[in-house]
Amino acid sequence: MAKKPPLWYNLAMDPINPERHWLDAAHHLAQEIVAAALADGVEAVLAAVPACHRAADRLWAERRAAVDGESAACAAGCGWCCHQPVEVSTIEALAIAADLRHRPDADVLRERLAAWSGGRICPFLADGACAIYPVRPLKCRGLYQPDPRWCMATFAKIDPPEGGPPIRHRALSLPRQLYDAVGQGMTRPLYRVGLDCSALEFAPALKAVFDHPDSGAAWARGEAPFPDRVRLHGWVEAAD
């Protein structure tokens, strides 16, 4: 039976919240990018995913300059956030797989996936850094935590070093909301034309399709390229 984790996108904000219009704009921008690609076939739809990633990154970079808050500790060499399962949409998993198959280090990535037998640690965590950083999922992009000790204790289940100020959860929620809004906008046009937009667990989903370059075409034909065991839940409409 499919598990039921939190919704893709649930702002739960007061209508007068000044961030709401900005998040709605991010949602609609991703929706327009994917909707425009639909008429050109599955390859265009897959290419729309990195376009949505770039749009989300640009929007957050612009917004970050105007947001009060501590700088994120997130950087190469940390990697504590990579000690947890990651949720992706079906189309995002297919697009990332398509990109990775054509990378010069595709064989290395394939070996990492083949050696991965489950657990909390992402198969692409290498020396504290993400081996697929340019195409990492939206859920990864939305993380923003000033105190890496919190991630160490929460995600990696490791006791942080003693001493120093008390550990507090000081993560900004705005980037998470932005990237979730883009994820919702990216999948909505696909759901409305009857395509599967299930949420999947990233690592086992990618492992299932990495060596099947026809998986995108199969998905577009209404087939199921992913096994039920990687499925988390079906598509959920955004809350208004």
Automatic annotation (TrEMBL):
A matching Pfam family: CxxCxxCC
Protein name listed in UniProt: Fe-S-cluster oxidoreductase
